[in-house]
Automatic annotation (TrEMBL):
Protein name: Metal-sensing transcriptional repressor
Top-level taxonomy: Bacteria, Bacillati, Bacillota, Bacilli, Bacillales
Family annotation (PANTHER family): COPPER-SENSING TRANSCRIPTIONAL REPRESSOR RICR (PTHR33677:SF3), TRANSCRIPTIONAL REPRESSOR FRMR-RELATED (PTHR33677)
Pfam families for the chain: Trns_repr_metal
Organism: Oceanobacillus jeddahense
Cross-referenced Gene3D superfamilies: Metal-sensitive repressor, helix protomer (1.20.58.1000)
InterPro entries: Metal_Tscrpt_repr, Metal_Tscrpt_repr_sf
Domain of life of the organism encoding this protein: Bacteria
């Protein structure tokens, strides 16, 4: 099973770029997230094959843990980017909704 490698997160603004009442994710971030999600998809398919082959439960659980770690890694990458761009930008613009929105997001992530 392929493990998602931890790559350093660039500190440049790369999450949300506002464009006429919507946001756009820059191509570099989108590509990085899509690459990671494609690898995770491969890991999930591998776990499914392991289950189909009735492989040792401990090995399956280990691979499932790797999938969960990889998903958390993608979430952290997106969250960090979101904080450094969208959230900071809205705080600077004194958007009163951003704190509530952000706390709702954090609550969902921490379930």
């Amino acid at each position: 099973m392929q493990k998602i490698d931890e790559q350093p997160i660039e500190q440049k603004k790369m999450c949300c770029v506002e464009e006429e009442d919507s946001t756009h994710m820059p191509d570099d971030l989108q590509k990085q997230l899509m690459n990671r999600m494609n690898r995770i998809e491969g890991q999930v398919k591998g776990v499914k094959r392991m289950i189909g082959k009735n492989e040792y439960c401990d090995d399956i659980l280990t691979q499932m843990s790797a999938v969960q770690f990889a998903l958390h890694s993608v979430s952290r990458l997106l969250l960090e980017s979101h904080i450094n761009t969208c959230v900071i930008d809205k705080l600077e613009k004194k958007d009163p909704e951003i704190i509530s929105e952000f706390m709702t997001t954090i609550s969902k992530i921490m379930k």
